[in-house]
Design brief:
Elements lengths: L1 H31 L19 H23 L3 H6 L1 H27 L5 H27 L3 H15 L1 H15 L4 H11 L2 H15 L1
Helix pairs in contact: 1-2, 2-4, 4-5, 5-6, 5-8, 6-9, 7-8
């Protein structure tokens, strides 16, 4: 009984987190649906917003981010895995495709134009590179039938997918608590957006090993 209650509480908590995350992503998407060059985040990118390559990468990255977030989340549902294995595989393929062939190249291009000088750019390059590697490894391991390794790399991959949410969350927290230069704020936010996620993922992987 206690095990059932604990699992139910965990599922409710995860559902609430995903709901909040989806809301934040949809709010970001809604800000840019007008395609105005000064909407939302773009007001800080006026040096690049008229570059068609950068602008295409930006909109592609923003509008497909929620696909990776939702598709990746389905991979951790025991119910879907047990009762709808074909759906699990389909959403897994969607997740891998969106990350490797859509979000990775667009994210890497944007990383080189990030605000906050080279520390910020370095953070996003590392984030994007690890995201690509963990997702690719998760795919390759399941192709070899190595389910345990597949799960471990999916945990790491999705932790970095979720950085799209933690990045925005930390930005709201820091801007509310500190009065600092926007570039400095963005530099701190870039590292806080994914490093704690990655540390939590490693803790979770090691905990499951034990």
């Amino acid at each position: 009984m206690q095990h059932l209650i604990r699992n139910t509480a965990r599922d409710i908590l995860v559902y609430l987190i995903l709901t909040a995350a989806t809301f934040l992503m949809l709010r970001t998407i809604a800000e840019h649906l007008t395609l105005r060059p000064d909407a939302g985040f773009l007001q800080f990118k006026q040096d690049y917003v008229h570059n068609p390559v950068w602008r295409t990468a930006f909109y592609t990255h923003v509008f497909t981010g929620i696909i990776a977030l939702l598709a990746g989340f389905t991979q951790f549902s025991g119910y879907i895995l047990r009762e709808h294995r074909s759906l699990h595989r389909l959403m897994g393929k969607v997740y891998v495709f969106v990350v490797l062939f859509v979000n990775f190249p667009t994210g890497m291009l944007m990383a080189f134009y990030a605000n906050g000088h080279w520390p910020t750019r370095l953070a996003f390059v590392i984030l994007d590179s690890l995201w690509f590697w963990f997702t690719l490894k998760a795919f390759l391991e399941i192709r070899k039938g190595n389910i345990k390794a597949h799960k471990q790399f999916m945990i790491r991959s999705y932790a970095l997918t979720f950085s799209a949410i933690t990045l925005r969350t930390w930005k709201m927290i820091l801007s509310g608590l500190l009065v600092i230069n926007p570039d400095t704020l963005y530099m701190i936010d870039a590292w806080l957006g994914f490093v704690p996620n990655l540390l939590f993922a490693e803790w979770l992987v090691r905990r499951r090993r034990k």
